[in-house]
Fold these 3 entries.
Entry 1:
Amino acid sequence: MPRLRLLSAAPAVVRHFVPSLCLGFMLAGGSAPVAWAEATIPQTVVQYRIYAHGFKVMDLQASYRLSDAQYGVAAHVKTGGFLGLFVKTNLQISAQGSFNGQTAEPALYDSVGWSRERNRHVSLTYRDHVPDVTRLDPPETDREPVPDADKKGAIDTLAALMNLLHQVRTTQSCGGHAKMFDGMRLSTLSMHSAGLQRIPSGGPREWGEDALRCDFVVQQTEGFKFNSPNSKLRNPQPGRAWFEKIGDAGFVVVRVEIDHPKMGRITIILDGPPQQKT
């Protein structure tokens, strides 16, 4: 039963970390194009499997368009496998933005769907580099509010990921720091390149050779629940991401590992080769 209690916490954990660490994208199989990014840029479609304690707990279906100037991304995350028998999560997450050199400048972020036993909707817009919560339904009145002054310069989790992917594609390295705000929580993200190495679990013939490893640390700093002054979620949460160049799709995240203080090792694995669509 302790393992089942841990698994039941997975949706909240993955809802917070998957968008920032895996790829941000549009629901694979959807008919509408990813918004904002230029239509001439190919759309990359990917799927991932997410594991905790050796059990498959969630699926991520996704696609994105990314250029030197802008990005349009979205993701569909839902519980599956063993966890799907006990807990239901079904979220669609999307974001739009542009780049100023190597820096992402987000414009919109939206997360909507079923999570934590009810429908939820979070929307952000940006003004003068400050994220503004335009929708938070239902209100999270049991959390510490994050002051606007502290949100200055913060970006959403999908923007943080697209910024990282953009950096990997243009410099074949990763590094730097960012503040992330998801409408409720403020976190810091630090990254550095660990060079080329073999992916721990390998992969099919389409990938599984040497990949660029990026080590990162995520730490929530504000927006905690009032009743959790000693929460383990205050601790730094280290992780690793491997990027491999696969055919016309270019560099793609093929594996992510997150060492979570409550869930232990969470592993996100590319499920099938990425697809390129117009």
Note: The chain has one domain: 43-277.
Entry 2:
Amino acid sequence: MKNNTRYAVTGALAGAANGFFGAGGGLFLVPLLVSWCGMEQRRAFATSVAVILPLSAVSAAIYWMKGGLDVAAAWPYLLGGAVGGVIAGRIFQKMSMVWLRRVFGLLILYGGVRAVLLL
């Protein structure tokens, strides 16, 4: 399968996760971009961040049109997320891939445990 097709399928999976769960597409993107598409890990992390913005905007627009998004309540999260993104973006270049993988793994583990506990 050509890389463009693999990238499109990977993006579709991330978009579906974003639509179903409200976020989380990046959890699919990084491992798939590395293992299936052969992308270098640091580039896969950066690519997933760039891809999640438009996917999240589309999902948010759909939720808003269906009456499921309170924009006024979302502003503090948006501002906090922007600050966190700037800080993490600056740290990203200085952090070793070993630590990036560990942090990413802990986030996945934490999300999985939280999801199971909420069932």
Note: The chain has a mean pLDDT of 83.
Entry 3:
Amino acid sequence: MFKIGDNIVYPMHGVGTIKAIEDKEISGKKQEYYVIKMLISNMQVMIPTGKILSSSIRPITDIMALKHIIHIFQDEESDKDLPWKQRFKVNTDKIKTGLMQESAEVVRDLKRMRKEKALNTSEKKMFDNTHEFLISELKLIKGITEKQIKIFS
């Protein structure tokens, strides 16, 4: 599915690059693994090639999908009436999908809330991490402009 050099998004971890595809024997079982270098944490992750679909790892979003995401980020309303624990769970579930649109919604909603009042520690950390993951992916999209990236800042 992926080849060496491909940039990917790994939900809850951010953007990474496929550095190698290796055969490894772990616990007596030989499997082929993607070796992924995560860009933000500088961590290396190994995922069996057979589990790549269930891991929700995906390629970097393309410029056409980004146009729709920019619209959502700027124009759509957020649901800020949920109690914070329920909102935190909804946002966590969105981030776990690995979809850029879902992450953009989380950033949008928390950014709007932050303007009205201080976020609690958990939501602040969620905002910071999700925003960093989002910006790191945006920078890798072919054809994106600095102006488009600034919309998400």
Note: DSSP finds five helices and five strands in the chain.
